[in-house]
């Protein structure tokens, strides 16, 4: 089998490799991918540092052309790359192709942004003095991405970093190196100068830690667990490094008595269980008012019976496997915790056997949960959701906000009054009305509050806040 190597200083390198296993069929090896060392990581950082002066002053048309080429190739190969994504992560093929299309759109967007770079010219309060305000590249950026969106999240970090003239050391999640390798290969062939984009696949304890220890990274943008995010933050203080952290979520979906029941069920099922619940924006707390509670639970249970859990590439699959054995154990451990805490297992919770060996788990719905239970406080990151009964809208809002996280929040209602109030008072970075809490556009800001996020927003024009630094220049006329 060919080893897909790391890219360092424009050269493919690396002999040590690990198997990329298909969670839908654990007998299938998707590919062999390099496992980088601390020395590899240091070399990548040095290459990015050496490439920064020239790339940071490169022309906007050069950046535009490279990003546009990448976006066009990703779109042209959407079926192939979508299948690769489904095989290595377990997302269903339609979801995987959709994510691939989104990655293409992100590169297209930032190809356009490269031509829209601008500053300000403002008058000084002093006579005969001009003031220019410009944005300049930050420097060498460390990019660390998770396994649950293996092409979209790398795209929305790499594209703006390059657009604004930064150089990159990129470490993808060890579980899903395939899509990341493909993006880097596409950009490399699109004409990026040597050292501008460096890929170092491997263990977080080696590659990631070496990145954290380096004084030469001007910024790190990280998406992953709360624990690792805190380590990124602490280590970055020592180096006076800019950080952007996207971490956990325990997102609420409020269902009010006046909700359209079919809309509420579709939004809740999508929020909680699609992509196998492995989304930081997934809604695992379904907060339901008394008047609709029993009807909602009955309708939700019937909906779950129709969802097919199977191989990610199989036609008719609604939910693919859990990503790996460790995550499956986490999910099943939390199911047992929920039972012991006194929640009622209303549906699912069982492992499933399919034609191929994989990490298959029924979507799991608890009822009679409280917001104090661990299953309601801690991020599970699997197809597990809890229904919390509340009296009215006021209690629903209070319970929705009673969480250490604040990424996404949703409400199902036909009341303009309640929808408007919820949008204003939900303590989350993103609010959805009669829509799933997961699923966002690529051209608008993404991010949360409280323990979910730290630093400036990702995506759209707001990406400039992280990937650039502001300079103010004065000139005597």
UniProtKB/TrEMBL annotation:
InterPro entries the record matches: Ald_DH/histidinol_DH, Ald_DH_C, Ald_DH_CS_CYS, Ald_DH_CS_GLU, Ald_DH_N, Aldehyde_DH_dom
Keyword Transmembrane helix (UniProt): no
Keyword Metal-binding: yes
Keywords: Metal-binding, NADP, Oxidation, Oxidoreductase, Potassium
Catalytic residue positions: 246
A Pfam family reported for this protein in Swiss-Prot or TrEMBL: Aldedh
GO molecular function, one term: metal ion binding
Domain of life, per lineage: Bacteria
Domain Aldehyde dehydrogenase positions: 16-472
Family: Belongs to the aldehyde dehydrogenase family.
Protein name: Aldehyde dehydrogenase protein
């Amino acid at each position: 089998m060919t080893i897909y190597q790391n890219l360092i200083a424009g050269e493919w390198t690396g002999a040590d490799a690990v198997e990329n296993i298909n969670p839908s069929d654990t007998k299938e090896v998707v590919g062999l991918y390099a496992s980088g060392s601390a020395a590899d990581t240091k070399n990548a950082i040095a290459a990015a540092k050496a490439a920064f002066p020239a790339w940071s002053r490169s022309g906007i048309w050069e950046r535009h052309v490279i990003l546009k080429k990448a976006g066009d190739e990703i779109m042209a190969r959407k079926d192939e790359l979508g299948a690769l994504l489904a095989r290595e992560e377990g997302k269903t093929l339609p979801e995987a192709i959709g994510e691939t299309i989104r990655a293409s759109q992100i590169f297209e967007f930032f190809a356009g942004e490269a031509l829209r770079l601008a500053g300000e010219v403002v008058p000084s309060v002093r006579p005969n003095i001009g003031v220019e305000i410009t944005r300049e590249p930050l420097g060498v950026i460390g990019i660390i991405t998770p396994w649950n969106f293996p092409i979209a999240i790398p795209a929305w970090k790499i594209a703006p970093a390059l657009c604004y003239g930064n150089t990159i050391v990129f470490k993808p999640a060890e579980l899903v190196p395939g899509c990341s390798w493909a993006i880097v290969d596409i950009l490399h062939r699109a004409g990026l100068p040597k050292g501008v984009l460096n890929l170092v696949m491997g263990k977080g304890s080696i590659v990631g830690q070496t990145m954290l220890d380096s004084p030469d990274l001007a910024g790190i943008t990280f998406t992953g667990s709360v624990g690792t995010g805190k380590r990124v933050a602490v280590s970055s203080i020592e180096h006076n490094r800019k950080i952007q952290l996207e971490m956990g979520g325990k997102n609420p979906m409020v269902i009010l008595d006046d909700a359209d029941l079919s809309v509420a069920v579709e939004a809740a099922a999508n929020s909680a269980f699609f992509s196998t619940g492995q989304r930081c924006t997934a809604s695992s707390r379904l907060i339901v008012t008394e008047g609709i509670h029993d009807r909602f639970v009955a309708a939700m249970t019937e909906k779950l019976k129709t969802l097919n859990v199977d191989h990610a590439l199989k036609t008719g699959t609604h939910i693919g496997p859990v990503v790996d054995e460790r995550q499956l154990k986490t999910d099943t451990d939390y199911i047992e915790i929920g039972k012991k805490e006194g929640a009622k297992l209303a549906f699912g919770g069982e492992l499933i056997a399919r034609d191929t060996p994989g990490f298959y788990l029924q979507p799991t719905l608890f009822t009679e949960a409280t917001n104090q239970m661990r299953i309601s406080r801690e991020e599970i990151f699997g197809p597990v959701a809890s229904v919390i009964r509340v009296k009215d809208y006021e209690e629903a809002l209070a319970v929705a906000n009673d969480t250490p996280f604040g990424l996404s929040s949703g409400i199902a209602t036909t009341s303009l009054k309640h929808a408007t109030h919820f949008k204003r008072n939900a303590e989350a970075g993103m609010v959805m009305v009669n829509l799933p809490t997961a699923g966002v556009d690529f051209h608008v800001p993404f991010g949360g509050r409280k323990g979910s996020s730290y630093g400036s927003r990702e995506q759209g024009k707001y990406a400039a806040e992280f990937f650039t630094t502001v300079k103010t220049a004065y000139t005597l006329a």
